[in-house]
Design a protein that fits this description.
Gyrase A, domain 2, 44% helix, 21% strand, 100 residues, alpha+beta, four-stranded antiparallel sheet
Length: 100
């Protein structure tokens, strides 16, 4: 069972994830894309990562904005597993911006 991180641990780990923040018992980020379809392409990349980790974010789409909320649902809080997923999501976002 993954251990829920302390508030201090969460805030320390967030320093390495630009744009991510704590909202309740989730870490979240909203990313804006130039178009709706680019946001959907990003979601497909995130879906591949999430399936690979068997760890799935909550996702909402509002036209060109994609909001991701990550929590270890089985534990009811934020664990190291959530940060591994967030880091992988960041790599996908960076790759998309670079056109990879």
């Amino acid at each position: 069972m993954p251990r829920i991180l302390t508030t201090e641990e969460v805030h320390e780990r967030l320093k390495g994830l630009p744009g991510w923040a704590v909202e309740g018992s989730f870490i979240t980020k909203t990313i804006e894309f130039p178009s709706f379809m680019e946001g959907i392409e990003f979601l497909n990349r995130v879906a591949e990562v999430a399936e690979g980790q068997d760890h799935h974010p909550d996702i909402s789409v509002r036209y060109t904005k994609v909001k991701l909320a990550v929590q270890t649902h089985s534990e009811g809080g934020i664990t190291a597993r959530d940060f591994r997923l967030a880091e992988a999501i960041e790599r996908k976002a960076l790759a998309q911006k670079k056109g990879a």
